[in-house]
Amino acid sequence: MAKTIIYIDGYNLYYSRLKGSQFKWLNIATLFRDQILKQQNPSAEVLAIKFFTAPVKASYARHGQASEQAQTQYHRALQAMYPDLIEIIKGFHIFQPTKLPLFEPGIPPSKRAVSSVWMIEEKQTDVNIALHAYRDAVRGNCDQMVICSNDSDLEPALRLVKADAPAVVIGLIMPLRENSTQGGKVPNKRLTGLAHWVRHHIRDDELAKSQLPHNVPTKKKPASKPSHW
pTM for the complete prediction? Predict the structure, then answer.
């Protein structure tokens, strides 16, 4: 059996696949381990699922404090159901003022026409995925790593894994819709070229079959699906 670790870029998964859908209360173990990976490699033994994310900022979120609470409930549900399987690894967001060029159709960006804006960045997610994946590979913690991301920032890490741990199989699951090209998002060739196998999209029916129970028992109050999800 192939010892496997799954690495999920939560930010990429949400904004590229789950945002605007009814599937946010997602059971990542059911989706990635029991559906997608089982079809790709039935002999895989999933040792861990590492979920990389950053806390929501209520001041910027669409639903304010409710968005922050929704994320908290979701993380509580995942950890209650899979305490020995799912690890949630958090980065953070930074907000800082900056100046960016104004957009005018047909005119290239110029420093002569700029506007003051807030720059909002998620920090540490990419580097956390890269470091965890590389360390697991070179330490022999897995025979196969499966990464859910479409972010080219992971390219250097995958190149180093292939160079320093060539026996480790790299699988990619792109967090995209089946007709992703219609929305302007396509599988990143800088990543797909480094993988042994690629799943180019996640289907709606797979997401629908991979939802958590509405109420998940915990050691305290149940973790409940947010009303706006």
Answer: 0.89
